[in-house]
Design a protein that fits this description.
- It is a single chain.
- This protein has about 325 residues and is α/β, with parallel strands linked by helices.
- It contains twelve helices and ten strands.
- It is globular and about 65 Å long.
- The chain starts with 12 loop residues before the first strand and ends in an 8-residue tail after the last helix.
- Bound molecules: coenzyme A and magnesium ion.
- Magnesium ion (MG) binds next to helix 7.
Length: about 325
């Protein structure tokens, strides 16, 4: 999978599931998250890292994950765990892994390393599809290099912005454990994380990648999550990580085009095609100017709705 052939399956909600907590795995499979990310990194204590690799490999193969996209988050490359995470889990279950999430990425070399390692494992294990990579941007170094990271390899499918580690990386004041969207205005007017998220989204979209937002930690606060997800969608993110099943529906909704948005998109596409305006430029629809840029936005909404099975292909 590459930036030029983005996955057709929806990627609105990405449920993080601690790798060593085997009981949670079938629950995740039975739920409504678009993507399941089996985690080997920060939700797994150091003395469980080894067990987690074995449990994750087993779950990947043994559970019926239905149509879900499957991801594994490995530990960062500056730990003693990462190389074994990749080798053991991909050798055992590479055929069913859609992508690997590489956390705390610092520069494009991290992607090159992982991509070459995957080349060898796929050849040795006769894995016929290419396992994709998501690069988690969660440090000042990663954000500074985000353009070259996004261009590093054709295996890249997405970038994600990890606000918790990024906050620590830049030494910014901590006001909440929930990621962005909670108590932020108490210390800064506006959206404190607007720049890094937008910068990450820009690098992702310029290279045909998806952009993902980090989870909202306070899983009891559904209003706060709704707000944070709406802001991420407004900034151009395609989906958001979640950590608890109660968060899935809220996030799916935030990243699903509403009937009104779909209706408006159809109206614009119909008007443009009736006017033959794709070659002509601007026209008026309901007293508003519509041009090729608006048509592209409408087309994007339509395609998202089509991927979710809400509408047919637009002719
Ligand atoms: N995946 C699958 N199932 C989950 C889940 C998850 N991430 N989080 C909770 N559940 C299940 C629970 O097992 C429980 O199931 P049950 O009703 O059959 O017993 C149900 O959802 C309700 O859970 P609840 O009791 O409200 O939460 P908790 O106190 O058990 O767990 C957390 C709270 C935060 C510890 C837990 O949600 C979790 O570990 N989340 C993932 C953390 C993570 O991945 N961190 C890295 C983030 S990037
Ligand atoms: Mg992190």
């Amino acid at each position: 999978m590459t930036g030029n052939s983005l996955p057709l399956k929806p990627c609105r909600s990405i449920l993080s599931v601690p790798g060593h907590m085997v009981k949670l795995h079938p629950k995740a499979a039975a739920g409504k998250a678009d993507v399941i990310m089996l985690d080997l990194e920060d939700s797994v204590p150091a003395d469980k890292k080894k067990d987690a690799r074995e449990i994750v490999s087993h779950s990947l193969l043994a559970i019926d994950w239905q149509e879900k996209t499957l991801a594994v988050r490995i530990n960062s490359l500056d730990t003693p765990f990462a190389y074994k995470d990749v080798i053991q889990v991909t050798e055992a279950a590479g055929n069913v892994i859609d992508y690997i999430v590489l956390p705390k990425i610092g520069h494009a070399g991290d992607i090159h390393f992982l991509a070459r390692l995957l080349d060898g494992i796929e050849m040795e294990k006769k894995i016929h599809k290419k396992i994709a990579i998501e690069a988690a941007i969660e440090s000042a170094a990663g954000l500074e290099q985000v353009g070259s990271i996004a261009r590093a390899d054709r295996r890249l499918r997405s970038l994600s912005f990890g606000v918790a580690d990024y906050t620590a990386s830049i030494g910014a004041k901590l006001v909440s454990l929930s990621g962005h969207g909670e108590s932020e205005t108490a210390i800064y007017p506006g959206h404190r994380w607007h720049y890094p998220i937008s910068r990450m989204v820009m690098a992702a979209k310029a290279n045909g990648l998806l952009a993902m937002d980090a989870p909202f930690g306070n899983f009891k606060d559904s209003k706060g999550l709704e707000n944070a997800a709406a802001m991420a969608a407004a900034l151009g993110c395609d989906g958001k990580w979640v950590i608890h099943p109660d968060q899935i529906e809220i996030v799916n909704k935030a990243f699903t085009p509403s009937p009104e948005e779909i209706g408006r998109a159809k109206q614009i596409l119909d008007a443009m095609s009736a006017a033959g305006a794709l070659s002509q430029g601007a026209i008026a629809v309901n007293g508003q100017m519509v041009d090729l840029a608006t048509a592209r936005l409408a087309e994007r909404v339509w395609n998202q709705a089509r991927h979710l099975g809400l509408v047919e292909k637009y002719h």
